[in-house]
Amino acid sequence: MNIKDYLDVLILTGLFDEFSAKELLNFFRAHNFIIAKYNKNSIIHFESEKCNYCDIILKGQVLVQKIDEKGNVLTVAEFKIGDSMGGNLLFSNYPYYPMSVIAKSDTEILHIPKDVMLQLCQTSQDFLVKFLTSISDKTAILTSKIKSISMKSIRESIIEFLNYEYYTQKRNKIKLNITKKELAERLGIQRTSLSRELNKMKKDGLIDYNAHSITICDFHIIRKL
């Protein structure tokens, strides 16, 4: 795989705005890197694995998941093409993945070693600032997600999801672009617990639902913006 084929993706990440396509090509030709392919559902990084690279997704989608001793899965974050991962761990005194990183679809990733990332930061102050901003934003998002999940009831988590989708889709019939299993993982609950609470909310007249959508029936659950 040739880095030349992915220059457009790298420029779209926002990290390399100051570089021209020619400058990026020359830089990567002079430094070590890896472009790796991962099949759907394969593990990209195991929990507790040492982070040796900053990863940039060139193709596909990636999930960050926590799996407990009972096998319950919590999807903490989802990253797509152009997103970067591992930057917050790479320069840490404890550079180990706290969760598993899994390919949601067939995925291609650019693995940039620590020394090359350091060279990029020294070469361009603009890259350095955008890299620091990126890892700070991701850390804040992950912290907020974990905090919200640990403090909310199942119903509160479902309502928060419905609020977000209501204002995103701009309608009361929320189309589900993920399966119930994936929704349960995103909310950090078991599939059976999600189904049980959805059924309770339906009986309470708050929602109606089927395999493909959830309809908001009582707008008192929707926060005003």
From TrEMBL:
Ranges of residues in domain HTH crp-type: 152-220
Keyword Plastid: no
Protein name as catalogued: Transcriptional regulator
PROSITE patterns assigned to the protein according to its UniProt record, in alphabetical order: CNMP_BINDING_3, HTH_CRP_2
Pfam family, one: cNMP_binding
UniProt entry keywords in alphabetical sequence: DNA-binding, Transcription, Transcription regulation
Any Gene Ontology CC annotation: cytosol
Domain Cyclic nucleotide-binding: 15-138
InterPro entries from the UniProt entry: cNMP-bd_dom, cNMP-bd_dom_sf, Env_Response_Regulators, HTH_CRP, RmlC-like_jellyroll, WH_DNA-bd_sf
Keyword Lipoprotein: no
Entry GO MF terms: DNA binding; DNA-binding transcription factor activity
